[in-house]
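Why should sequence recovery work at all? Because a backbone constrains its sequence more than one might expect. Tight turns favour small or flexible residues, buried strands favour hydrophobic ones, and helices have their own preferences. The token representation captures these environments compactly. In the example below, the structure is given first.
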């Protein structure tokens, strides 16, 4: 069997430090095949503990080195020049090659979005597009048998099915660090996304069909997390938690049945969820919903190919208020179809959303393989030759970026729970963290209680 070093290259801590879950899944798969696996988290091990990765490579002497790339940039057009991640990845590959001649394999969600471009830029030896749990062990087998695999392995043809998921190989020191900094651990109950939003890469990364863990498997893993690491709060990182097949409700039912006693939050789509269903979710531990509303009027919702209207957003928000479930809406401005008239309509619509947090973004990051890329080419925003390795943003040709942003700022300054630009929200969250608060933190902007001190205690746990 082989010795394998897996490196999580992410160092982003905004809005919160996030446990490298994909790395833990690949580690579990490799360990299951009998390999000796060591996980190295660049954020914690190198930046916090000051343990140079070069020293770990020298001491561990791995046969293979895997690097997971989570982000290309932070998809914020207002900080476009200060949050590009790939230069650091290229330097990491270069530094490793100075001390080791062992194969370097890169993967992760960022790599899967633009594999050819990132391979050419970083000069890694091999790359895996899609899930690594099956593809990485097979690549190692091929290399050990002196076979010559392709430089870029397309793992989409070997996706994990419903009953083949691994339990993440969480590491105690990393769990303690991330829970200390964010107040929660992350977990994924299913993969894929069947929706066809024209800017989104989830279907590119995970496929267009939901592949679901059994509710029993989810609940057992959550109980294991709690028992082993004393973690009582998780964020479900599914692309969309509320699927039309009601898997999410079955998960909630099983969490209640197995008495998981775990607080949780997740990404939701503004589809109809009944009051009874919300009560079930709340009984299972739901305390906050991050809602992908994405655009704030029907014209712009259509412009990004959403299949719901703004009334659906209002209806879900009203139900959440009645059940006292904190929710945050995320809106993008400047999308296809945006005009100054739709801006005004959007601001009026958002006013209808009571007792919630609102985050706004200017423009949409254009990524390869999306319909938005074709729209941007047709409108001469980018060229067909643009690799998109460097950030490029779509802004509707019917608005001027700075003027649009000024109007957003003017509309948002009247509301303490409306946050724009994104850095404003990050500064508010850091201020709360400085006072010892943990968790999502934006939910502290929503006070369902008349006793603030009660709310404070409940949030900080």
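From this structural description, the recovered sequence reads:
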């Amino acid at each position: 069997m082989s010795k394998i070093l897996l490196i999580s290259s992410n160092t982003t801590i905004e809005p919160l430090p996030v446990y490298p879950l994909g790395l833990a899944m690949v580690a579990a798969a490799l360990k299951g095949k009998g390999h000796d696996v060591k996980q190295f988290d660049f954020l914690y091990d190198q930046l916090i503990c000051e343990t140079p990765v070069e020293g770990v490579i020298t001491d561990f002497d791995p046969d293979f080195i895997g690097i997971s790339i989570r982000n290309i940039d932070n998809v914020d057009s207002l900080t476009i020049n200060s949050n590009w991640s790939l230069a650091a990845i290229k330097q990491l590959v270069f530094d490793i090659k100075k001390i080791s001649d062992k194969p370097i394999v890169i993967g992760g969600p960022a790599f899967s979005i633009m594999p050819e471009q990132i391979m050419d830029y970083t000069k890694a030896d091999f790359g895996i597009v899609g899930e690594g749990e099956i593809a990485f062990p097979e690549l190692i087998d091929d290399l050990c048998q002196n076979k010559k695999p392709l430089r870029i392995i397309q793992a989409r043809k070997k996706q994990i099915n419903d009953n083949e998921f691994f339990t993440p190989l969480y590491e105690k020191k990393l769990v303690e660090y991330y829970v200390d900094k964010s107040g929660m651990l992350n977990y994924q109950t299913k993969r894929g996304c069947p929706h066809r939003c024209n800017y989104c890469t989830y279907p590119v990364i995970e496929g267009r069909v939901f592949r679901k863990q059994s509710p029993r498997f989810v609940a057992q893993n959550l109980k294991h997390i709690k028992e082993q690491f004393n973690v009582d709060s998780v964020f479900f990182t599914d692309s969309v938690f509320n699927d039309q097949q009601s898997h999410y409700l079955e998960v909630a039912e099983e969490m209640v049945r197995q008495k998981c006693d775990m607080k949780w939050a997740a990404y939701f789509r503004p589809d109809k969820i009944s009051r009874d269903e919300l009560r079930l979710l709340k009984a299972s531990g739901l305390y906050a919903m991050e809602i992908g509303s994405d655009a704030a009027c029907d014209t712009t919702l259509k412009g990004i190919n959403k299949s719901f209207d703004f009334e659906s957003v209002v209806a879900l928000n009203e139900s959440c208020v009645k059940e006292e479930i904190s929710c945050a809406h995320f809106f993008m401005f400047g999308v296809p179809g945006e005009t100054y008239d739709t801006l005004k309509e959007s601001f009026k619509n958002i006013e209808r959303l009571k007792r919630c947090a609102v985050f706004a973004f200017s423009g949409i990051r254009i990524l390869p393989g999306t319909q938005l890329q074709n729209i941007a080419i047709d409108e001469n925003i980018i060229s067909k030759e643009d690799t998109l390795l460097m950030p490029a943003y779509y802004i509707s040709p019917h608005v001027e970026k700075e003027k649009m942003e000024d109007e957003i700022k003017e509309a948002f300054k009247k509301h303490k729970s409306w946050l724009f630009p994104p850095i404003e929200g990050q500064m508010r969250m850091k201020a709360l963290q400085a006072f010892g608060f943990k968790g999502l933190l934006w939910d502290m902007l929503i006070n369902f209680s008349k006793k603030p001190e009660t709310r404070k205690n409940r949030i900080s746990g």
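A few observations help interpret the result. Residues 451-461 have pLDDT under 50 and may be disordered.
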